[in-house]
Every structure is written in C-alpha cells, then in structure tokens.
Fold this protein.
Amino acid sequence: MRKAFGATQALRNVDLSVGPGEIHALIGENGAGKSTLMKVLSGAHPPDGGRIELDGEPFRVSNPAESREAGIAMIYQELNLAPHLSVEENMVLGREPSRWGWIDRKRRRAMASQALKQLDYSRLALDTPVNLLTIAEQQIVEIARALLFDPKVLILDEPTSSLTQVDTQRLFEALGRLRDRGVSIVYISHFLEECQRLCDRFTVLRDGESVGAGDLKATPLPEIIRMMVGREVSEIYPRAIRELGEVVLELRDLAGVEKPSSASLSLRRGEVMGIAGLVGAGRTEMLRACFGLDSRRRGEIWIRSRRCHRNRPSDLWGRGVGLLAENRKEEGLLLQRSLADNLMLSRFGPVSRAGFVRRREQGVQAARLMERLRIRARSPWQPVGELSGGNQQKAFLGRLIHHGADILLLDEPTRGIDVGSKAEIYRLINELAGQGSAVLFVSSYLPELLGVCDTIAVMSRGVLGAKRPVAEWTEHAIIEAAVGKGNG
Amino acid sequence: MTDANPKPGSRWSASRLLTIAGPFLGLLFVTALFGLSEDLRPVFYTGASWKNILTQTVIVAVGALGMTLIIVSGGIDLSVGSVVALCSVVGARLLEHKAPASVTILATLLVGGCVGLINGAVIAGFRMLPFVVTLGMMGIARGAAKWLADNQTVNFEGDSIVVTLMERVRPDSFLPLPPGVWLAVGLTFCVAVILRSSVFGRHVFAIGSNEATARLCGIPVRARKVMVYGVAGLFFGLSGLLQLSRLTQGDPSVAAGLELDIIAAVVIGGASLNGGTGSVMGSVIGALIMAVLRSGSSQMNWPNYVQEIIIGIVIILAVGLDRLRQSRAS
C-alpha cells in the first residue's frame, strides 16, 4: 500500500506508505499538515497532485462516505457520539440494520457485539447510554463503530489526549489486536514516548512535507524531535541557575469539597515547583480551590506572609496571583474576541482612561506582548479562536504577564500544543522565574517537569506529598509516589 | 519571522466591513424595494413618510438599546412588553394626579430600572435561566399594570411635557422631528460607545462570550449581570414613557409582544442569541428595517397578515445570511 501526495496549500510533498498489519506513527507539530492529510484521505479535500494507492489500485474519493466504503476509517480527536443513545445505537448510527423500515434489533446486537469482541471489550454493556461511559470506553465505541465497515486502514488522530495512563494502555492493547488481524493503522500523536511504545514505523511531517521516516525502535528520540522542530532537544529545556527568595505563596492544609483532601506547600520567589500526579489526583482542584473558582472546605492561603481570607478570583489577581486553567478553549479564552481583548481581560486599567478603553494604546501594548511571547497572528485584533493551539496558549499565558502577576499557577500549560510552542513556553517560564516570579507547574508529562522545575511534589489521591529538589527525583520515583506505593 | 506588528489595514478587512455594513445594506435594500412601485414612490420617499417611520421606530429602538446589552451578555428578557405597559400606566396615574413632569419621568424610568434589577438579581443570585425568570416577570408586570390601572385605560387631563415627547408638529414636513426621536438618536450613540469602548462594555462581551473565562479573570460576573438588566430596565422604562406619550393615555394591555419585535431587531442587527456578539447600531437599524417594512406595506395597502409574513421571512433571512457569512469567514 502506498500513498503519495503532491501540492495542496498545506501539503507540498508528502510520502507516506503503510504496510498491512503495521501501526505507523504520523508525527509532526501542530500546523505541520497532519489534519490536512486526514482531510485528503477522507475525501473532504481533493489532492492537487500526486497519487494515492490502496492495495496497489489508484484511490480516488470525493466525499467521506466513499472513503469509508473504500476501507478507510477515521477516528477524530473530538468524539463523535450521540451522548444519550446507547452503545449499540451509536455504533450502527446512520446504517441501522432494518427490515421494512423497522430496526432489526437482533442483527444490530450481533453486529455491535462482534465489533466489540474484536477489540476484546465484550464486557461493555450494549444498552448503556454512552454518556455514562468513561472517555476511554467512548473511544472504544468509536473505534468499534469504525470496525463495522471492516476497514483496511484505520486512522486515529490524537486518541489519547484525554485518556488516563491505564486507559491508554487498554487502547494500545486493542490496537495491537487489530494490527495482528492485518489492519493498517496510522496513529497521529504528539506524544513521542507513546508512539515508541505502540508503533512500528514513523513518518515525520514538517511544514506540509514529509521530512523523515524510519523504524521507530531504531531511531533515538532526540533524532525524531530534531526532525520535527529542526533543532536540538537540549535547547528545549533551558534552565538557568536561580537564587530562590522568600516564600510568596503558602497553602496550609487546603481541602476542596471533594479534592484535594489535604494540600500544603510553600513556594518561593524565583522557584519553579512542579506538581506531578495521576489524572484525577486533585491537582487541578487544588489550584481551583486556591484561586477561588471552587469552594474550599478548610485550609489557609498565605500570600507574601499575609493570610488571604477572601479568595475570589479578583482578590487573587489583585495580589499578583494568576491562574492558567487547564482547558484554554472552555475556560481560558474568549475565542470569538480579539487577541488584544483576551490579553487584557483581567486588567484593562493600563490601557483605559476614565473607564474607556483606549484602542490605540491597547493595540500597542498587545503588539508588544505578541513580540515578547512570539505569538503569531495577523494583528492584535484577530479573533483568538483563529490562532493555532500553541499561539492560543501563549495568549493565555500573555494575560498573566500583562496583568503583572508574579505568582503563576499553571495547569498543564503545554497540553495539546506543538513542540516548538512548548519550547517557547518553557523559555518563558524560565525567563519569568529568573525575573523573580514564582511558578507552580502542574503537569502529567514527566520529562517537562524534570526538565523545567527546581522542585517537584507529587499529589496522590488528593494528598500533596513533600517537595524535593528535582535532582532527587527520577521518573520512576515520581510514578511510584503518584500511584501511592512509595514513601513520597 | 514573527508577524507581531499590527498592520493598520487589517482592522478593516472585507469581512469586518461587511459585518458593520450588513444591516445598513439591508436597510437600503428594503427601502429601495418599495421604490419599485410607481404608485408608492412619490408618497414613500417624502419627509412626512420618514418622519412617521422614525417616530414609529423610537419605542422599539430604545428598547433594543437595552436588549442589545442583555443579549450580548448572553441573556434574554421576555418581560419588556409588560414592563412598557406597567411603566406607561405608572406614568399615566401620576399625571392623572397632577404630578409634575419631572417626577413622572423619573418614576417611570425607576419602575423599569427596578424591574430590571429584580430580574438581574434573581438570574445572577439563583443562577436561573434568564428565559424562565423573565417569562415569569412578563406575567407579573402585566398583572401589576392591570391591577394599577383597574383593568382599564388611564386617562389624564392637561398637556404635560411628557406628551410632547412623541408629538408630531407639522406632520407634512420632516422637521421638526419629535423630541423622542432625537433622544433615541443621542442614546444610541452613547450606548454604542459604551458597549464598544468602555471597560464595562468589554466585560459584557466577555460574559456573553464565555462566562467561565470572565469569572477566571476576576470580572464580577454577577454584579455585572445585575447591572446589565438594571440599565436595560431603565431603557424599557423610557420605552414605556414614550409609549405613554404616543397614546396620551396609560393602557395596561398595550405593547403585548413588543419584546419579540425588539429581540427581532437585535437579531436582524447581527447579534447572536448565544451571546458575545452584537452591536447597538445594528440593532437600531434592525428596528428601522422592520418599521420601513411595516410602513411600506401599509402604504401599499397590503393586509396586515402580509406584513407579518414578510417580517417573519426577513428575520430568518437576516440570521441565515449572517450564518452564511460566518461560515465562509472561518
């Protein structure tokens, strides 16, 4: 099987070939052309040149339905399920087996259970509404739905971005079984470690071109990263030696309504403190309770040695604390509004006079921030929703910088963004800490915690452990502490 | 490499221009449409005819100012018609008892403002859906108006300044326009500037666009909502005063369904009922489009039901075009 493309606007010269029974990793930064490639394969966009072959035959499709008939199945990053319908209803959606217009329930059940069996997920109850399932199970339903078409090629776009590690492992096992049955799988992901565990070969896309391909197990990671970003990995985690100052933020036995059950920490000027832990351990809830977004059951918050009795978001902003929430699209940004408005939202003071915003001044200051954070946008007035994920995240971080916050609570600041943007966010964190800011850095990605932080503490089942200098931690020790086996 | 410098031209991209000019073009189109009729042309394009149209628009337009604030903030207010009736009855009762004009005006506005504050406080305080709360208020205010008016129209003697607000001196010429029209024009500019350029306006847009973000950024969301409904209530009170001036009596059953006209005006003007978008100018032009259609249709001697059908089509068309434009832009 071989596919080759010529020029479309976002794709210039892509060679990709996937053999039967192979899991092929498609790697690239955001905007490298991965989603365009998917659109071409699904028939939503015709290729301008080049050719696609499936089983040696030329492959021409003009719409998604034809592509599906030809044996190509797509699993998109966002789940496409009807939440109130049951597992089996979702699986046959749009192609319900019927007799004289009435649903053939027996056949539907047989089709659904057969597909789930292929994934070894027979234990899923077929009549459960999918909104009662975990995200991982919903993902499985979606893959099982694709299997009903008996696909030759299965393409998955970032399927694990919202999965826990256990669920990811399950998904990988299911994909492994499909491979053994001879299905070709194209696996698109940011997580290189994950690709290494799962995939056989890889192709790297950069700026719409395939810049490298090879055997994943035989290629060292830094080499792949270099292909992706075009530079060395050592430049990704810059770390300066910093003097730590006085304690600026202290949490004493903070407890939220459900989580965390107990969190105590002290953060010093110039310190970047990492918070590791499993998804659902209560790290996000700790930041939200501290920031007054969720109510807290007990505990004290001390900022610069003064107790903070009322902790509404406005009180904390007023004391120089800023929160970068974990979900920039749902909570972080006003997607329809301009970049400039998003940057200034917590503090219009510096760009307004007598309650009126001075547009010119706002533009000038926004442009200055764009330059400092290297946000790529047409102008400060471009709606922030039109920017790429990495640029959106930088805009979100830019708000904290504009506000002048020097105690930064960052919740998964690099989630779902490309390696280049990640490197710039690390650079910014490093720069801000160097200027005396204190940073609380929550992340599930251990290499970045170990690469960026001065100290790390691990949260396990709602309890925050003691912090230790980064040199005393290894990935292994962090995972042990996170699952609650170690003494951390 | 980094395209950080704002290009001055990009502020006025084609799509942005279309957003601003869209309602204007709609108004021109509708106006030109009635020019196709040979019989109508000499009567329709006259000062007297336009004076009539503007005077008819004022009540809806002033209401649309308040409604734009509410809709941009992500809310809705269904109680407007009832509030207008209540305010006009309050004003008429006061004039009946020989209250001075200043007291009447103030009291009418305050009643509107208070109803708005109650709406806002319930919506923000109990986190209830604006649709439900204002639906309830629609009944309450209408009931209160009928109660206060003993279920009949309230007439008053003498000519107060209140009555002259909508008085059409010299109906044959364009000028002088009734003071109410000038008032509406002035308020339109004020509210437009406030919504576009004030920090309060940015907050209103932020709340309508994404309430969670507004909260995260420390914007006092609840207080702003109460304020939005309160300020809007003042405008609805003013609408009531103008209604009173036009009828020269207080009628508790007046303005039934006015809220739907007002919402239609705001939506034709480019606002989304999901909140976060909308413009004051657009809303007022939306109100004008409907008034032009009404006036033109009645001068064509079309029956009432034709007008209703046409306006219905225009609402759907306006929103449909807007969607089309947005989907093309993205």
